[in-house]
Design brief:
Elements: H1 3-57, H2 63-76, E1 83-86, E2 100-109, E3 122-142, E4 149-152, E5 155-158, E6 162-165, E7 169-170, E8 175-178, E9 181-183, E10 194-195, E11 200-202, H3 214-221, E12 231-235, E13 238-241, E14 244-252, E15 255-269, E16 274-284, E17 297-300, E18 311-315, E19 324-326, E20 331-332, E21 334-338, E22 344-347, E23 354-358, E24 361-364, E25 368-370, E26 380-386
Parallel strand pairs: 3-6, 3-23, 4-7, 4-24, 5-8, 5-25, 6-9, 8-10, 9-11, 12-14, 13-15, 14-15, 15-16, 16-17, 16-18, 17-20, 18-21, 19-22, 21-23, 22-24
Antiparallel strand pairs: 1-2, 2-3, 3-26
Helix pairs in contact: 1-2
Length: 388
């Protein structure tokens, strides 16, 4: 090779090395950008899911809660700027859906070896949509986060609705046929139990379903603050008890019929009585003592029409006393609502569709509980889910 030819090779080698290094730099930067994009996508997913869970916690009634949760989750994952949150989303399949939250994260990622070519960096945009989705109607809501429930030796049949437990439960020796069983606390004790359909599965805590049940929501906003109510005391009485407000209500060994709304602002007892009636609602105010139905045969149905339709028993949430539904041959229908009461004894129930909302409950013995098919538009449980 002549001397001139040797000198001509050097520029070619330099150009080749530059190209090779350029491709190597691009490979490194592309890998880095993909890694950062995945991190950014994970942050968008987490923010959308967190927003959806917050919406689920409010039954889709607070868009501000969903937005705040999404922004907080994005920041927790390293993205406190360039975050756009829309709830409800303004476009796409969830546009206008109050149960959905859209998250977009826009960031500029600085490169390394190709920085000379793009000194401003590479713009990356990721997005995600989360939604509070329904898992189906519930028959039993146990809302306490700290008090377990007991369902020992019972037979529960609710094939079209579920059991939702914010703490945990003992299912010792029980037979359970229900569409879903969720728990937010520790795993339940299933010793010797048979689950004919759904088995217990972890879930997010559920909220009080009252706002979604029209009759319950009515009483929540119209609970009477009754004063000057009379007392009633009957022994061995047979007949009709007039509806109205009572500051004291006592039945001993009676056989009575109820009809209408009964408001209890004080003590109440029904020892050894037989009580029947249709179109009945019992309301226990903040000053009322939770009724003791010990040894009572109950056959009661709620009103089927009107503002309080479907509500058999309503105890204001601020009243933490526990009603006692302890009777082996009770026939009850409708909503029984005592959301802050823990350890509610509920033994024996059969008949039409029944919804129980307690803090926690005890269902013991050989009693059978038959929850009929839920009516349309009954309460739903919301859970946060990532949709796209």
């Amino acid at each position: 090779m002549q001397r001139g030819e040797k000198g001509a090779v050097l520029p070619f080698v330099a150009i080749t090395l530059t190209v090779i290094l350029g491709f190597a730099g691009m490979s490194v930067d592309v890998g880095f950008l993909e890694y950062r994009q995945q991190q950014q996508q994970n942050a968008a997913d987490a923010a959308a899911l967190g927003g959806a869970q917050a919406l689920a916690g409010t039954s889709c009634t607070s868009s501000s809660a969903g937005r705040a949760a999404a922004i907080t989750d994005a920041a927790d994952n390293g993205y406190s700027s360039g975050v756009t949150v829309n709830t409800p989303p303004s476009s796409g399949p969830y546009a206008g859906n109050a149960c959905a939250v859209y998250v977009q994260i826009n960031q500029t990622q600085r490169t390394f070896l190709t920085r000379l070519l793009r000194p401003a960096g590479m713009a990356e945009s990721t997005e995600a949509v989360g939604a509070a989705v329904t898992t189906g109607p519930g028959c039993i809501y146990l809302l306490s986060m700290t008090q377990p429930s007991n369902m020992n030796g019972t037979s529960i049949s609710s094939p079209k609705c579920g059991i939702y437990i914010n703490d945990t439960s003992n299912f010792n020796g029980s037979t359970v046929n229900t569409s879903s069983i969720g728990y937010a606390g520790a795993a339940p004790n299933e010793n010797g139990s048979t689950f004919q359909q759904a088995t217990p599965a972890p879930m997010l805590p559920v909220q009080d379903p009252c706002p979604e049940i029209a009759g319950c929501n009515y009483w929540a906003n119209n609970t009477p603050a009754a004063t000057g109510c009379p007392t009633l005391s009957k022994n061995g009485y047979t007949g009709v008890i007039a509806s109205g407000c009572y500051s004291g209500f006592s039945l001993n060994g009676c056989n009575v019929t109820l009809s209408g709304t009964y408001i209890f602002t004080g003590s109440s007892n029904f020892n050894g009585s037989q009580i029947s009636g249709t179109g009945v609602t019992i309301v226990v105010t903040s000053t009322g003592n939770a009724p003791n139905f010990n040894g009572v045969n109950l056959s009661l149905t709620p009103p089927s029409t009107g503002n309080g339709a479907g509500v058999l028993y309503y105890q204001v949430p601020g009243n933490t006393q526990s009603p006692n539904f302890n009777g082996s041959s009770n026939n009850l229908k409708g909503l029984i609502y005592a959301p802050s009461a823990t350890g509610v004894n509920f033994n024996g129930a059969a008949g039409g569709y029944l919804v129980l909302v307690f803090g926690s409950t005890n269902m013991n013995g050989s009693s059978s509980y038959d929850f009929a098919t839920p009516p349309p538009n009954q309460s739903l449980v919301y859970q946060g889910a990532l949709t796209q």
